[in-house]
Each structure stands twice: as C-alpha cells, then as structure tokens.
C-alpha cells in the first residue's frame, strides 16, 4: 500500500483498503449514487469535466514533480504528453458532449410502418479503470474523462509502480471532483484482486497481456464488458529514398522522446534493407548525439527506467549471447540511477530475447532484410502490435503496408502521433488489445447504445396474427423483404 | 469429407468416417482456416459478394427443407419459419449486398493543426478466423445471420450450430458444404465436448448466442487468448401495460410477440407483464378473447404453435407452474401434453415477485402478470432486476413514455409493440449487463467482425523541431500550445506571450 503525507481520517477512508468486503461496499455505494440519477444530467457531467480541466491547470507543477519523482520524466514530456493531451481531451468532451448525448435518429422501412426509431446512448453504471505506470496521469484520467462524459460513476485504480502520481491522484481527485461519484483506490495486487471480484458495468484496463487475461477472466464471471489497452512490438519499416534526417528524428522522438522507450506505442524495432542499414545507423548516431549529447546517461531529457525489475529485465536483453557484438551505439548503464543510455543494435537474430518480447525501454534493434517487401511477412508472423510505422515515399509500398499490416493503428512517415488525433480510435487488435477510446470513442466505450423503436396503435396489419394462412405467409414474406413491388405482388396474389 | 460429431445424422452417406472432434482436430481446423485467410482471398469485395449470394441461394433454394427441419426440431409453424428465419435472413443478405461496398470504404476523418500537415482515415479490416456458436430456437437465423456478417467483413468462419435442434444442425452442415467456399467457411456439429474443443483454440472473435451460464464459460475461454466476444443472451423482457390504450391491439401484439414467436421460446419474447391492479382484469379478458381468436378453443391441437423443444425444458416449465406460490394464479390455459411436448398458452395473474416463474427467464408459453398500484412503479420493478434484452411499454401517456425510455435500461426498447425492433436493421441488436455485450444486424454485423484500424499519414515536410531534445522552456511553451490546437494559443506561444 502506498502512503500519503496527509494522514487525516477522511484521506485514509478515501484511500486503499485490502479486502473484498470493502470493495463490495464501495461498489454498492457507487451503485446507489448512480441509481439516484445524479450522473445522468448534462450539467453534472460538464461540471466534472470542468473540474478536471481546472485541476490539470492549477496543479501542473505538482504533476510535473510527481512524474519526475516516479520516473525522472522530463518536464516537457509531462507537460506536452500528459497534461496538454488531457486538457485537449477535456476540451473535446466539453465541446462535443451535448452532441454525443443526443439520441441518433435512424431510418425505418416499410416493414414497420408507421414507426420511428433512434439509438439512445446511456451510461453503463459503475465502471472500474485500472491504469498504468508509464503515463500514470494521462492513462488514469483520459479514460476517466470518457467515463464521466458518458455519465458513469468511476473507481480509478492507479498503478502502484508510480507511487507519487498515485498518491497525488488521490489528493487531487479528492479535492476537485464529486467524491460521491468518483473514487480512487490505491494499492497493488491484493487491492486490485479485491476490486476485480466485484461486479462492474465495465472494466477499462491499460497494461500488459498477462494481467489483461486475468482482468478479462474476472470480468467474465459477471459478464462485464472490457476495454484492454495493451502493447506489442511496434515495428518501424524504413525504406530508402526518404528524408533520412527527418525520419531518424521522428523515430528518436517516438522512442526515447516518449518516456525513454517505455510507452505502448514506442517504435520497438526497425526493419530495413541490408543496403540501407548502415546509412540509417549513421543517421541515428548523429541525431542521437545532437539530442542527448555525448553523455546521454547524464541527460535530463530522458526518463529513467521505472524500477530495478525492469532494469534487470532490459539488462538481460542486452546480455543475451545472441546479441553480443550487435550493439552499434550506446549500451551504457548506471544501475544506481536506474539509467540506460539510448542503445541501437544492428542485425539481431529473430530468435534473440530482444526480438521475442515487447522491449519497453531504450533499446532499438534493427532487423535487416534483402527486399523491403519481406518486412511485411516478418511483421505479420508475430502477434498484432498496437502500432506499426513506415517511412517511405513509394506509393505502392505505402498502400501495401496499409492494406496488409494489421495493428491497432498505423502511421506513415512518422511515429506515435496518431495518439493526438482524437477523431481516430486508439486501441489494439489481437494481442495488443480489445476496444478503443479517445474523442467520441471514449464516450462510446462507456456507453450502452440502446435501440428504441416507436410504434403507434394504428396500422395494425392482421397478417402477423394467427391463425396462419398461406395468404398471410406470402404477405409477411413480402413485407419483411421490404420491397414495395414485392408487397403489391403479394397483395394481389401474384407471389 | 470427414464428418465430425458424436451424433448420428440422418442422411449421412455410407462409408463416410465419423471421428470425434477433439482439441487436436479443432486446432488443425483453425490452422487450416488461418492459412486460407492468410492467402488474402477473403479481402476482396468480389469474394465476399459471391459468398453472400451463395448463402442466400442456399436458403432460397432449400426453403422447403428448412421448413421441414424446423418442423422436426420444434414443430415450428411454416409461417414462422418462412417469415422469421428465412425472410429475415434474406433481408440481411440484401442489406449487405446493397451496402457492402460502402462499408468497406475507409472513413476519412479530420485532423487538427497539432499534426499539420496530415491526413487520417479509419480502415475496416477483417479480424481473421472467427467462431459463431448458435442457438436452438431460431437455429437457421441465429446461425446464418452472424455468419453472413462475418463473411461480409472478410473473415473465415466456423459455425457450431446447436445440437438441441439436430435436424437444423444437420441441414446447415449440408448446405454450407454444398454452397459455400469450404476453404473459409465450415460447420462443426456436436455438443459440449466439441464446443469445448473449439473454445480451447485461439479465435479472432467469438460470437455466441444463448444463455448467461454458457456465456460466462465462453468469455472465460476467450480471455485465455484475449479474444473479443459478442454475447447475445437473454433476460426477463417485461411489458408495461398502461390504461387508456387500444387494449385489443396491444393484446394482439403481446400475443404475437409471445406465442407467435416459437411459443415464447425467443430471447425477446415478452416474458412478463406489469400493469395496475385496476387494468389487470380487463387485460386478462382481452388476452383470453384474442388468444381464442388466434389459437381456437383447443390450443394444444393448434398447428400455429411451436412445441416445447425438449423434455428438459418441458420439465423446467412444468416446475414453474407447479410452484406453490403460483397455485391458483392461472387465469387461462395451463394445459399440458407431455407426450407431444406441448404446453398451451398460459396466463397467470398476480404472481408473487419471489415465485420461481419470476426468478428466471421463462422461455416458454407462460405469461405472468404482476400488478402494481400505480403504473409508474413498474419502472422500479424492472430496474430492480438484471437488465433484460428487451423491454416493452404500451401507453399513450407521453410523459410516462419518455420516463420509460430514459430510465429503463435494456438491450432495446419498443413502445406500443413487441419484438419488431429485431427487423429494423439500422438499430443495433444486442444486450447490456446480464443480457449480453456487443450488437449486430445491418452495419453493426459488419462492425462486429471488423477491426477499425486507425491510419495517420504524414509527409516529410513541416518538421517542427520543438518535439526534439534538447528540451527548452521555449519548446515546452510551444508544444503546449500546439497540442492545445488553437491558433491563437500557438501565436501567443510563438511570440513568447504564454
């Protein structure tokens, strides 16, 4: 259990607890609040979204400090990727919410004439959001924004691996938000298990595939639908005849510029041709030095590795016999500071450790192929990743890439930016996840789209009712078919 | 062709082998379909259209056999088979053939100044190899409707029909083998063992229609492989009957949705009625009159009613009637013929809320009526239970109607009729909470078996250096403004005013 500096009783009440009984009470309480109808109204939702927007702005410095504490995240990354993105999410939700909440009228056909129909979005009820440690602020509050916009009550379980942020979240949400509807539960495996035993109306999980299976199995006991935002090995295909300098800088920004490679959509590995690889390596070396200097272990513009477990994991990938001699740049480590410098490896074997798991760190292996088209088979031979990238000016290759590579999302000639486009659904497929969010997709993820058909008492065709006759059968066939001609023919006994 | 299954099928050719369909066979089947899918053939519009047309042809050319199979499995009246199984399926195919080209087109979406210059689109792609597990009550429709959606979306499909409707299961296997491209579309017949073997495999989607108990098993199996699911389940679909309505029309529509749908054995059949103590007697009278008009004085003999599917279900339904708590509550019907597995349309009045018949989904020809003092109380009654697949209301009171639509959570709602929302393909058909997850019909079927892939296109021009280290305060300010997306914010930042 993490600690908070503020030890008043009410703080402790809002914080962690260990057992299933407490979790059950919490859900019961939130169900009662939901049943009161408090979260249904537009005004309440807007007030909460505005409160969130306010807390992001007013407490920016504390958020920057917490991220620095948890992962030595450079302030620019916190401000640009965690805070600014959240502000944008709030803004989009505030701008569009009225529109999202409006029932969508749909066409009806002659089969149900006279009638009208619409799809009414309604909140699911009480939802659980389990967040991750790498973008602990964004990945906690972005789903919360969606859940609130959709009118649900929410329990947020931040990651204990980012304790300063977790603790700060308790304090900030406690201060700014409606605590009868939005709660934070801190803790680790025990607390999460207690929460997962309860019946939720939706569970939104960000993390890895192993825990996701546990989450989905727990959800299955209650038929709770889930969104699972996971990861994978996001490949970058690099063609020749490109602006190598720009491509390299964008790869670096997406890899080491995103939490030092500890991001679900960071470029994981590169595939390029044997011919082109040396040029790419040279460009990477030059740009990496421009960005991080000659002593990257000292650079303040790189996050550290989050903890010693992950440090050991990444070290093991570098110590693998199969990649010895493949390091072409970097490879320096400082265990006491949990720092690993930007590292590039060339020509790693496909069965090396570094190529079998999501790296989630500052190591970038380069695979080489004879012809670039082979890269598609390489990618498709593995589990579907969360993102896939290609740098090319070859139109045909680009189209082939978009047509055959299955991933959560694709970016052509850049990395990671699709995260910032709120009109695009952000989520995985296969091993990289289930469901999506961002923009309206967040609202939809926490909504039930209820079908409603309105009929009147007039126009009651007796053909539906027994006793069944051949005439009725013919007419009903035609009516369900919906074609006027078919109905006329049937009416006249011509079918 | 190897025929898998542990049940003997009528009409099986002599000399064909019957192997037990075990996990190894299931794994082999999935592997084979994955290789087929990898060939890319299902991606093409032409292939998909050819398969949808083939399935449509299979059904149209064999309508008589389908009617016979349903008669054999359920004594389903031909009109119900022709209209609800065949007719609805034909309609699904026609909607697909008309709209598929449009559905397959990537959807362009707007980008903002944050990523300028860029363009973006959402590209629909097939998930891969999917499993459809069907039910026994509409065995043709609930098999082929999801299957045709999966095909439209470009997937390879394995269909597991319900063994509780064996004639239909057998016919489906035969028709699909004969008409469809067997490299991509297969049928596996069988029961628990075969289904378990299938569920152990890694699918790209599982679509299950049935009950909540098995729904949990399916989702738990899917969780091992992170396979997304659609679960079309059921619940107790209530009918709220207000006063001041056209009672005759309402009664007929209730009868049509209840006994006119497989004798109440349908996931969206009206399960029970809630009305006021004042209205109840009138409602009962009208129901009695209309039931007699529809089914005559001897409904056990009527050919316009399905039988109960099996002796298990017959016993289950008998138990509901034999419950002490409802003794003396039968206002109409109650006759049974165990030999023919028939139960007459039965109406019960004023059953207690803790009776057996109110504790589970009835799925049969018994219609209990609960009475309340004021009709508004019905909303609390409904919301105190699990969310049903459908909920119905008969009213002319605008305010009450609006309250109902707003406050009753169910898969779908219908005002002043029953079950018809099933035929409106522009409405998503699916449950919420205990009644299910996901939806289909019309475009929702295509979407259910599709991955919506986000694609962002950027050019090499316009490379703002503010993303790149070394990080400075200026860059920080500018990045903030850029992500915020407002022109003014950016200008201010550029000039150092923020």
UniProtKB/TrEMBL annotation, chain A:
GO terms for molecular function: aldehyde dehydrogenase (NAD+) activity. Transmembrane segments: none annotated. The keyword Protein biosynthesis does not apply. It holds the Pfam family Aldedh. The keyword Coiled coil does not apply. GO terms for biological process: aldehyde metabolic process; response to abscisic acid; response to water deprivation. SUPFAM superfamilies: ALDH-like (SSF53720). Residues 31-452 form the Aldehyde dehydrogenase domain. One of its GO terms (cellular component) is cytoplasm. It catalyses: an aldehyde + NAD(+) + H2O = a carboxylate + NADH + 2 H(+). Belongs to the aldehyde dehydrogenase family. PANTHER family: ALDEHYDE DEHYDROGENASE (PTHR43570), ALDEHYDE DEHYDROGENASE TYPE III, ISOFORM Q (PTHR43570:SF16). This is Aldehyde dehydrogenase.
């Amino acid at each position: 259990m993490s600690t908070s500096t503020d030890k008043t009783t009410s703080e402790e009440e809002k914080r962690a607890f260990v057992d299933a009984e407490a979790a059950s009470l919490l859900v019961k309480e939130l169900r009662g609040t939901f049943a009161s109808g408090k979260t249904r109204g537009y005004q309440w939702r807007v007030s909460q979204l505005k409160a969130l927007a306010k807390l992001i702005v007013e407490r920016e410095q504390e958020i920057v400090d917490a991220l620095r504490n948890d992962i030595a995240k450079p302030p620019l990354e916190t401000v640009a990727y965690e805070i600014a993105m959240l502000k944008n999410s709030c803004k989009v939700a505030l701008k569009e919410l009225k529109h999202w909440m409006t029932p969508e009228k749909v066409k009806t056909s002659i089969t149900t004439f006279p009638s009208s129909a619409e799809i009414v979005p309604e909140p699911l009820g009480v939802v659980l959001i389990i967040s991750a440690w790498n973008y602990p602020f964004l990945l906690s509050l972005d789903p919360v924004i969606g859940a609130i916009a959709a009118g649900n009550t929410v329990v947020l379980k931040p990651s204990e691996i980012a304790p300063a942020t977790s603790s700060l979240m308790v304090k900030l949400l406690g201060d700014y938000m409606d605590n009868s509807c939005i709660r934070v539960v801190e803790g680790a495996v025990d607390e999460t298990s207690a929460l997962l035993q309860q019946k939720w109306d939706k569970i939104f999980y960000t993390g890895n595939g192993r825990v996701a299976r546990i989450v989905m199995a727990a959800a299955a006991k209650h038929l709770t639908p889930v969104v699972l935002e996971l990861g994978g090995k996001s490949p970058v295909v690099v063609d020749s005849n490109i602006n190598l300098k720009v491509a390299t800088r964008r790869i670096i920004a997406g890899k080491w510029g995103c939490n030092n490679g500890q991001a679900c959509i960071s470029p994981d590995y590169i595939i390029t041709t044997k011919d082109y690889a040396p040029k790419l390596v040279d460009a990477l070396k030059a740009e990496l030095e421009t960005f991080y200097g000659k002593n990257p272990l000292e650079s303040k513009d790189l996050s550290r590795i989050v903890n010693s477990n992950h440090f050991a994991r990444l070290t093991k990938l570098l110590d693998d016999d199969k990649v010895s001699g493949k390091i072409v740049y970097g490879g320096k480590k400082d265990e006491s500071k949990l720092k690993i410098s930007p590292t590039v490896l060339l020509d790693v074997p496909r069965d090396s450790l570094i190529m079998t798991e999501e790296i989630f760190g500052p190591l970038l292996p380069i695979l080489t192929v004879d012809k670039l088209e082979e890269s598609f088979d390489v990618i498709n031979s593995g589990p579907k990743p969360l993102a896939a990238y290609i740098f090319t000016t070859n139109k045909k290759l680009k189209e082939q890439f978009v047509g055959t590579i299955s991933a959560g999302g694709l970016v052509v000639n850049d990395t990671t930016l699709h995260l910032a486009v709120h009109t695009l659904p952000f989520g995985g497929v296969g091993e990289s996840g289930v469901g999506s969010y961002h923009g309206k997709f967040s609202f939809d993820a926490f909504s039930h789209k209820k079908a409603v058909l309105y009929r009147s008492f007039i126009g009651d065709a007796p053909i539906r009712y027994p006793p069944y006759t051949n005439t009725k059968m013919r007419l009903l066939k035609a009516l369900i078919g919906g074609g006027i001609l078919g109905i006329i023919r049937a009416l006249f006994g011509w079918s | 062709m190897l025929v898998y299954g542990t049940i003997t099928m009528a009409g099986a050719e002599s000399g064909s082998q019957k192997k037990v369909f075990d996990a190894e066979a299931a794994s082999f089947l999935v592997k084979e379909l994955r290789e087929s899918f990898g060939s890319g053939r299902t991606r093409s519009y032409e292939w998909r259209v050819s398969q949808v047309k083939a399935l449509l042809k299979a059904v149209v050319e064999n309508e008589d056999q389908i009617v016979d199979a349903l008669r054999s499995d359920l004594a389903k009246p031909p009109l119900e088979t022709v209209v609800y199984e065949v007719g609805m399926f034909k309609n699904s195919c026609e909607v697909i053939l008309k709209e598929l080209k449009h559905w397959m087109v990537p959807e362009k979406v707007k980008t903002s100044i944050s990523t300028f210059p860029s363009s973006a689109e959402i590209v629909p792609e097939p998930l891969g190899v999917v499993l459809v597990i069907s039910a026994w009550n509409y065995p043709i429709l609930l098999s082929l409707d999801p299957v045709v959606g999966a095909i439209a979306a470009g997937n390879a499909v394995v269909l597991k029909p319900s063994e509780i409707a064996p004639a239909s299961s057998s016919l489906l296997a035969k028709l699909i083998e004969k008409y469809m491209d067997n490299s991509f579309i297969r049928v596996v017949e069988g029961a628990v063992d075969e289904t378990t073997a299938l569920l152990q495999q890694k699918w790209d989607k599982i679509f299950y229609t049935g009950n909540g108990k098995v729904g949990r098993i399916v989702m738990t199996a899917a969780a091992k492989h992170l396979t997304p699911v659609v679960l079309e389940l059921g619940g107790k679909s209530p009918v709220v009957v207000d006063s001041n309505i056209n009672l005759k029309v309402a009664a007929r529509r209730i009868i049509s949705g209840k006994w006119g749908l497989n004798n109440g054995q349908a996931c969206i059949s009206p399960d029970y009625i809630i009305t006021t103590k004042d209205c109840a007697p009138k409602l009962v009278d009208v129901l009695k009159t209309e039931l007699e008009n529809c089914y005559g004085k001897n409904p056990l003999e009527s050919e316009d009613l399905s039988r109960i599917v099996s002796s298990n279900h017959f016993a289950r339904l008998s138990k509901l009637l034999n419950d002490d708590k409802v003794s003396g509550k039968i206002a109409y019907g109650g006759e049974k013929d165990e030999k023919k597995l028939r139960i007459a349309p039965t109406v019960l009045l004023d059953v207690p809320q803790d009776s057996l018949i109110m504790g589970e989904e009835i799925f049969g020809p018994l219609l209990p009526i609960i009475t309340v003092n004021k009709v508004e109380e019905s909303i609390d009654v409904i919301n105190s239970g699990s969310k049903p697949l459908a909920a119905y209301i008969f009213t002319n009171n605008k305010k009450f109607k609006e309250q109902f639509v707003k406050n009753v959570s169910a898969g779908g709602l219908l005002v002043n009729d029953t079950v018809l929302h099933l035929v409106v393909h522009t409405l998503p058909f699916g449950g919420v909470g205990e009644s299910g997850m996901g939806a289909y019909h019309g475009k929702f079927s295509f979407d259910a078996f599709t991955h919506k892939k986000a694609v962002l296109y950027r050019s090499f021009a316009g490379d703002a250096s503010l993303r790149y280290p070394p990080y400075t305060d200026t860059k920080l300010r500018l990045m903030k403004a850029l992500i915020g997306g407002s022109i003014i914010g950016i200008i201010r930042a550029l000039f150092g005013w923020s």
